[in-house]
Design a protein that fits this description.
By secondary structure, the protein is an alpha+beta fold. The protein has helices at residues 3-26, 28-57, 71-106, 125-131, 135-138, 150-158, 197-233, 238-269, 282-297, 317-333, 365-368, 380-386, 392-402, 433-436, 438-443, and strands at 110-114, 120-123, 165-168, 176-183, 189-195, 278-281, 302-307, 311-315, 340-348, 351-358, 406-411, 417-424, 428-430, 449-451.
Length: 452
């Protein structure tokens, strides 16, 4: 028998025992009166406890369970345990919900919970930033009130959510968003938003790169094809044949330069290419670059080299040779015949500077920030005529990035240009004539020597 039955029968049995005891002493009527009064008292006590329970049930859930006696103590104890169990489960659910909300708020993607009518129920901070949602005002509002791009409205209306839709952000100019709907539950939906601005930029660069390479290769290939057809179909004099062969060789060299530059740029951009650093003397490198510039110019320009300070540089000599050589060759290509190109090297308090100044055609201000983009040309027709690949300054940029250096461009139309490479101090070590050795000191008589 359960404890509640045992405790519940104590009071009625006690009343019955008292009534039976009173029967022989006071008679049957008195015994029945005692029994009736006792049972009424027991019933009244139970009604009082039941009233207390009813009153408690009508109060706030947080109010403590009343204390009871006898059988009601057992009932109240069971009820108290039940409430504690429910409170523990509610606390666990609340903690789980808080963890879910915290996780959703920390997601790099935006998350919006929509009901069956596509009304906003909740949104994490990233979605609020992407879509301009303010939950205090927009909770319960249709999502199309905030995301009004026709492509998204059509996407939502079609109901085919197997692929995301790409839209331009209305909140931030230049931001591109990928939005996808994920149905869940009965009719609810999750709207996932992702900022793909950089991915779109990379994809656009890739498309532009392929288009530019195709365009750059198309011209020499067209020339080569035309000359080959001419050589195959027409009898030519030896002089004409040699001329066509020379032009074909020139176009082949242009393609070879383009391929070489593409391979160089690809190697510089590779994450797996380790920078092989070594300390080397800058003077022989500058002399070599100056000699190459004079050979490329073929006497059409006045080229001077001014080495103010002898120094050793820490880095890749080949990469610096490529970067400096591209700056100098650009100056030769874009400086009219009879112009002056000045190469200058000096050590500064912050490191060192190598500059290439010319009296060429100059560059308008709006083009300067884009000069280091691959295949970017201020004047495409003139660039092709000079034989450039459009990758030289992109190579310069990546070499300098790998060496924590920077490129500064000063130019104006018809006033020439100055390209300055600034090296950090940790990569430059000033050396004396004695440290440089006899070869270097004999090549550069003084620290301000002007070599022509």
């Amino acid at each position: 028998m359960s404890p509640i039955w045992l405790r519940g029968l104590i009071a009625p049995l006690a009343v019955a025992v008292i009534a039976l005891t009173a029967w022989p002493l006071a008679g049957a009527v008195a015994a029945l009166a005692v029994f009736g009064a006792g049972m009424l008292g027991v019933a009244a006590w139970h009604l009082i406890q039941l009233d207390a329970l009813t009153r408690w049930a009508g109060t706030a859930l947080e109010k403590a369970v009343p204390e009871g006696r006898g059988t009601w103590a057992i009932a109240y104890a069971a009820l108290y345990r039940r409430l504690r169990l429910r409170s523990a489960r509610q606390r666990d659910l609340r903690l789980a919900l808080d963890r879910f909300v915290s996780g959703a708020e920390a997601l790099p993607e935006g998350v919006v919970v929509l009901d069956g009518a596509n009304r906003i129920q909740w949104a994490n901070p990233r979605a609020q930033a992407h879509l301009g949602i303010e939950l205090r005002h927009d909770a319960g509002a249709p999502i199309v009130n905030l995301v009004r791009q026709p492509a998204f409205v059509q996407y939502l209306a079609n109901g085919d959510f197997s692929e995301p839709v790409v839209v331009e952000s209305q909140r931030e100019t230049g931001m591109t968003l990928s939005i996808q709907i994920v149905p869940f539950g009965m009719e609810e939906k999750l709207l996932m938003s992702r900022d793909i601005t950089r991915l779109e930029a990379v994809a656009r660069l890739r498309r532009d790169f392929i288009a530019n390479v195709s365009h750059e290769l198309k011209t020499p290939l067209t020339v080569l094809t035309g000359f080959l057809e001419t050589l195959a179909d027409m009898p030519l004099e030896e002089r004409q044949r040699q001329r066509y062969l020379a032009l074909m060789a020139e176009q082949a060299q242009n393609m070879q330069r383009l391929v070489d530059d593409l391979l160089t740029l690809s190697a510089l951009e590779s994450e797996h290419r380790v920078l092989l650093e070594a300390e080397f003397a800058i003077v022989p490198l500058l002399l070599q670059i100056s000699a190459d510039a004079k050979a490329l110019s073929a006497g059409r320009h006045e080229i001077t080299l001014n080495i103010r300070d002898q120094a050793n540089v820490l880095g890749s000599r080949d990469e610096f040779a490529s970067a400096f050589g591209n700056l100098v060759s650009n100056a030769v290509r874009y400086t009219p015949d009879g112009g002056h190109i000045a190469l200058d090297w000096r050590v500064t308090a912050d490191g060192a500077e190598f500059s290439v100044a010319d009296t060429g055609i100059g560059i308008a201000a709006e083009h300067i920030s884009r000069l280091t983009e691959r295949f970017y040309r201020v004047d495409r027709s003139r660039s092709r005529a000079t034989g450039g690949t459009g990758l030289g300054l992109a190579i310069v940029k990546h070499v300098l990035i790998r060496h924590q250096a920077e490129l500064v461009v000063d130019s104006a139309p018809a006033q020439g240009s100055r390209f300055t490479v600034r090296l950090p101090a940790r990569r430059v070590k000033v050396v004396t004539d004695a440290e440089a050795g006899p070869a270097a000191s004999s090549t550069v008589p003084t620290n301000t020597a002007s070599l022509r």
